[in-house]
UniProtKB/TrEMBL annotation:
Top-level taxonomy: Eukaryota, Fungi, Dikarya, Ascomycota, Saccharomycotina
Position of the signal peptide: none
Xref: Gene3D superfamilies: Electron Transport, Fmn-binding Protein, Chain A (2.30.110.10)
Protein name (database record): ZYBA0S06-06700g1_1
Taxonomy, superkingdom: Eukaryota
Organism of derivation: Zygosaccharomyces bailii (strain CLIB 213 / ATCC 58445 / CBS 680 / BCRC 21525 / NBRC 1098 / NCYC 1416 / NRRL Y-2227)
Sequence ranges assigned to domain Pyridoxamine 5'-phosphate oxidase N-terminal in this UniProt record: 8-90
Length: 195
């Protein structure tokens, strides 16, 4: 049984539907780093070649010249943070700001060249959440020359078409994370653990 099969519906929905995940990795020398990533959630029945005995995975792409990639190769234990922004469902990456007018010390909003930057600024202004989930797991770099890599890359591009520049690069590899546990906290500081 996959660890995610034990998740309550609201946690499973958060993992399935979030746009981004924060991926924390650590070097062999215990130097941490965190990256904001596009990803896909792949349930056990949708894994490569439909291996129904496998666990569910979080899959993301990374460049081979990054600290994140080097960390995963040296230490495959990772932590994934999913945050449920209650305003995220109504945000548009094309909006300038959440507020109708700027504050006196705030300049007029301007269009940002990065949709991701625009979204992050809106989320930071909102600072509202219902729950956050910290999932831990084992990361595996997928051989870019096999069918599994193509299968997951196609899924990743289908779900994240605006992230093709991060997914289709020459030195890009895919990483799949087998989820081993989750710790969930809500706005009232209630915490639940799932193994």
């Amino acid at each position: 049984m996959s660890c995610t099969d034990k998740f309550p519906p609201h946690l499973r929905e958060l993992v399935k539907s979030s746009k981004y995940v924060h991926v924390a990795t650590c070097s062999r020398d215990c130097v941490p780093t965190v990256s904001l990533m596009n990803y896909i959630y792949v349930p056990a029945d949708k894994t490569y070649e439909n291996n129904k005995d496998e666990n569910a995975y979080i899959v993301f792409a990374t460049l081979t010249n990054t600290e994140k990639y080097r960390n995963i190769c040296a230490n495959p234990k990772v932590s994934l943070l999913f945050h449920d922004w209650i305003t995220a469902k109504s945000l548009s990456v094309r909006k300038h700001s959440l507020s109708q007018s700027p504050t006196p010390d705030q300049p007029e909003p301007s269009e940002h060249p990065s949709k991701l930057l625009n979204l992050l600024q809106e989320l930071n202004q909102a600072e509202l959440f219902q729950m956050s989930a910290n999932l831990r797991g084992q990361a595996t770099v997928i051989d870019p020359n096999n069918g599994e890599s193509k299968y997951y890359k196609d899924l990743l591009l289908k779900v994240n078409p605006d992230a093709h520049v991060f997914i289709q690069g020459d030195n890009t590899v895919l990483v799949k994370v087998q989820i081993e546990s989750a710790k969930v906290s809500d706005a009232e500081n209630n915490t639940s653990v799932y193994n």
